[in-house]
Structure formats: structure tokens, C-alpha cells
Amino acid sequence: MDSPQAERPDEPPSPEDFEAGNTTISERIPFLLTVVPEDDSGVINPGDPLSFETNMAINPDNIDMCRLHPDYYVKYDIWFAMDTGGAIQWNEYSPTEYWFPCSGESVEVSEDFLAPPTGGDRERTLDVQLRTGDPDDRDDYSVISEDEFTVYEEIEPPIASISAPSSVTVGDSVTLDATSSTGEIEDYRWVGDLMERGETVTHSFDSEGTYEIAVEVEDWQGQTDTARTTVTAEYEPVQAEIDAQTSIEVGETLELDGTSSSGHGGIQEYIWTVDGVEIGQGSEVSHVFDQDGSFTIELAVTDDVGQTDTASTSVEVEVDLPVAQLDIPGSVDAGEEFELDASPSTQGTYFIDEHTWNVDGETLTGETTSYSFPEDAEGEHTVELTVTDTEGNSDITSEEVEVQPVEEDSTNEEENGDDGNDTDDIGDDSGNGEDDRDSDPSNGDDTDDSSENLLTWIWNLFWFR
User: Fold this and answer.
1) Are residues 308 and 252 in the same domain?
2) Would you say residue 11 has pLDDT above 50?
3) Residue 322 in contact with residue 344, Cβ under 8 Å?
């Protein structure tokens, strides 16, 4: 029990002086006296091991010695008696000494015994008492507490059984049968949603689901058993279906058809969404996309009994991209300004709103613009054009342009005369002691090269005139 039995001290202080009568204990009652079967069936049969059990404590305020010595113990002789109803009406068990601490702590008092026979009856109720007094004079006692219990003749416990279909149609009646249960059954209780009684019952289910069916049977002794099974009630399944194109261009109309969807009692609600945004209701709807990409079309349907289902499909929405084209000359002179023209470019689905040029790392903008290469930019150069539409779609193209070098103007030299640096100057005017008429001193001689240079000069003069 919850309270431990107090231990008797090795040398208790004259316990015979403190053998109390019944006054102190009687002031502590009522005690709860219980009869505890060995098993948990709740039914006591002849020969079953039982225990009388209770917890008791003295009231130290009523005992002078306890008030003076709270660490002392007081002894009581306690025994159980059972009314058997026979010739010896009360069957008394041997007294047991119990030492109760003056501190007021409780002590467990118990007695083990076997349930008596029923005496030929199907059941028998017996009284049991907890007594204290003089162990040598059993007639001098007081009843501390009492209880009663019933002994039943031993019979087989009931076994419950259910016969029922595993699945039914919503709204149809079904028979639930417990007649195959065994035992001396007096009552059949159907529990759960049924709350009915009887060996057989009928029931119908108004909505879809899996239901647990249970029947509890009870025999005349109060022994019970429960059987369980499940019954699944089903509607016609609901199914959403979508009929639609899988690809379309921006600006075109997409037709969405959900008329193939089905459910119990018909489909009552259609809800269409594109990437989670509702676009319409009804078995058939249409939609126009204003941008490209991959989109998820979803249809949610609800039938007449509230069942729902969803179906989804993907549609690819495409756009025509802009095409970059440029018009520039294939060859220009260094330093000469020329036009960059992007007007041949064509738009796609969206308008072109940006033209970007890249020439030798320099960025220019505009559908048409102009540019000139520096005089030292002789050679081949790349002109690149990028066109971008209003949605950010772009295209790039490029062409090569040949930059011609700047040609010298010989007329200016003739008009300006001798600049003092030409190789055809006569004589040595450098002060270096060499004849300047030798324009090629590397040839190792002092031959006058001026005649050759003069012919070259005359030829250039003639050509540019």
C-alpha cells in the first residue's frame, strides 16, 4: 500500500502498558475495507485468492503516552471475520499484532484468503468485518470496518462476435448480427454511432467513411466481452479532368474544358486557377496569357455530396522574339563619320524599345546614330547591335567594317615649298659633312639619290592632280 508498515523498535517501551481498547481506533474510522480479487475480471468464483485490505492509523491526541512520547508505538490485535452463513456463522481469522506509530502514520492491514463456495447457489453474498479487541476473548471485540462481496458459481465468460459486410453503399441499410456470440448472455449493446441494443440491428450510413462497429455482450454475472469490426461506406468517387492545349502563343485564347469530370450526384462546382490564381468558374472557361513561360492550370471540382478532386496540366506560352538587323557601310575612312542604322530590325510579340550599339567598347543608343573611327583605327572593326523589347527579350547581331587609313595630301607640300626635311634637298645642310643628295647612305656610296626621289615626287603629284 502507499503507507509503509512501521517497524517495531528493538526495545519498545513497555508496549503491554499501551494495549488500547477500541476507543482510539474507533475514532479514526470509517476505514475503507476492500476485497481484492487476484485477477481483474471483477467476478469472484469459489476458490479465488482474495485479500482484505485497508490502511489504519491511530489518533495520537487520544493517547496520553503518545502525547508524551511521539516516537513510541502502540500495539493492537486485529483480525478479520467472514460471515459464511453456515453452522459457524462467522469464520474468524487469527489475530495479528499491529504496531501503530504515535506519529500518526498509517499502517497497512491485510489478510489473504480463498473465496468460499456458493453452497449450491449460483451466487452468494458474504459480509466481512475488521475487528479488534482481546485476542483471548473473541467475544470482546469492536468492529472497525466492514464490507461485503459476492461469490458466483464459475461459468465460461461470454465471447462476443459480429457478422457484418466490410463495405456498403452510402444510404443503403446493412444488417449487423451478433447471434454467433457465445455464453450465458443477457444483454447486447451496440456502441459507437449505433447506440442500439439487440442480437441483430440494421443501420444505414449517411456519409462516406470507415466506421468502427462494436458490440458489448454481458452475461448474468456481469462478465462482459466486446467484438469490433469496421464497415466502409463509399460514394461514387469524384474525378476532375481537364481538356486543353499544351502550348499557345502570348495573346492567343486558351480554351479550358472540364466537362469530363464526374462525381456522386454530378459536379456542382468548378474552380480554375493558373499558378494558384483563380481565373474563372464553370465547366468551360477561356484565358489569354499576356506573357510567356510555363504555367500550371488546375481544376478543382466538388460533387453533390461535397467530395472534391483536383486535376492539373501544364501549358507552354511562347513569344516571338525580336530580330536584330543593322545597316552600315562595309568600308569607311578613318575620321569619317558614318551612320549606324537599326531600322531593318523586326519586333516580335512585343515592341522594341531599346537599341544598343557597341563599337570598339564604346556604347551608343538609338535606332539610328552616327560614329567615326579615329585616324589611327586602320583595319577591320566589329559593330554590334542589341535590340530589346518591352518585356526584356533581346537579340544581338554584328557586322564588320573596314577602316581605311588617312591619305597624305601632296598638294599641300608643293604649295608650302621646301620644309628642310625632304630627302631630295641638294647639298649638305645638316652640318654632318655628308652629301644630303645621297638619300640612302646605307648603300655604302655617295651616289646622288635625288633623281630617283624626284621621279617619285613627280609621279605622286601627277596622280593626285
Assistant:
1) yes
2) no
3) no
Residue 255's Cα: distance from chain center in Å?
35
Q: Hey, which bits of 220-367 come out as E strands?
A: 224-234, 247-249, 253-257, 267-274, 277-281, 284-288, 293-303, 308-318, 331-333, 337-341, 352-359, 362-365
Does one domain contain both 210 and 278?
no
Structural domain contains residue 255: yes
- Identify whether 9 is part of a domain: no
Which candidate, 233, 238, 236, places its Cα nearest to that of 169?
233
420 CB neighbour count, 10 Å cutoff: 8
Instruction: Name the DSSP letter for residue 60.
Output: G
Same domain, yes or no: 26 and 93: yes
Min mean pLDDT across 72-86, 175-189, 380-394 is at 72-86
**Averaged confidence pLDDT in the chain:** 80
The CA–CA distances, whole Å, from 198 to 180, 190, 212, 423 equal: 13, 8, 18, 137
As given in the structure block, the three cell numbers for residue 172 are: 443503403
Burial of residue 90 (CB within 10 Å: 0-12, 13-18, 19+) is: middle
**Please, what is the end-to-end C-alpha distance for the chain in angstroms?**
136
Q: How far apart are CA 160 and CA 174, in angstroms?
A: 19
Distance CA 305, CA 238 (A): 10
| One domain for residues 69 and 191 | no
**Whole domain around residue 396: which residue ranges?**
331-404
Beta bridge partners of 394: 388
Return the number of other C-beta atoms located less than 10 Å from residue 400's C-beta. Answer: 11
Residues 310, 285 share a domain: yes
The number of domains in the chain is 5
Looking at the structure, tell me whether residues 50 and 73 fall in a common domain: yes
Which pLDDT score is estimated for 130? 82
Q: Residues 263, 307: one domain?
A: yes
100: pLDDT strictly greater than 60 = yes
In this structure, what are the phi and psi dihedrals at residue 351, rounded to the nearest 5 degrees? Answer: -70, 145
pTM to 2 decimals? 0.41
C-alpha cell belonging to residue 216: 458489448
Does position 168 have pLDDT exceeding 60, yes or no? yes
Shared-domain flag, residues 140 and 51: yes
242 is a domain residue = no
Check if the beta carbon of residue 58 is closer than 8 Å to that of residue 112.
no
Q: How buried is 20 (Cβ within 10 angstroms: 0-12 exposed, 13-18 middle, 19+ buried)?
A: middle
Contact 152, 43 (CB under 8 A): yes
Report yes or no on 160 lying in a domain: no
The CA distance from 463 to 465, in Å, is 5
Is the pLDDT at 323 greater than 80? The verdict is yes
